[in-house]
Amino acid sequence: MGQASLPPSVTYEERGNVGVWNITSAASYLSDTEKREQGEIHFREQASRSEMNGTVVKFENAEKLGSEIRGSLDHINEEWSRLAEEVDIERLAYVADGMMATTVKMNIEADVSTESFDSIEDAVSWCESE
Hints:
This protein has 130 residues and is α/β, with parallel strands linked by helices. It has one domain: Transcription Regulator spoIIAA (2-Layer Sandwich), CATH 3.30.750. It contains five helices and five strands. A five-stranded mixed beta sheet has the order 1-2-3-4-5, sandwiched between helices. Strand 3, helix 3 and strand 4 form a beta-alpha-beta unit. Helix 2 packs parallel to helix 3. This is SpoIIAA-like.
């Protein structure tokens, strides 16, 4: 089976044993079920690889979510918590301007170390640390 494709609003790169997803339009991504499902399939495939020990998800333009944030947070709480447990990573980091990263972090209910950051570099560093 081939690698799942990402929606146009998401990019992916690997930094060592850390997968980094950059959601360039959080509002567009989180409000579109098809885009979310594509991203979640890709996350599951990449993050579950044995060499992966951490993941970073960066949200750009999250402030444009507005009133849609409640439904998005409910989805994150249910689906992303389940995904984090399924892939068996050690650390999960979120990066965003403002309160978005902290808000997402607080909505993850998984047995994995979770933290929020202001930069991808700090998040990757934390994921790589013991």
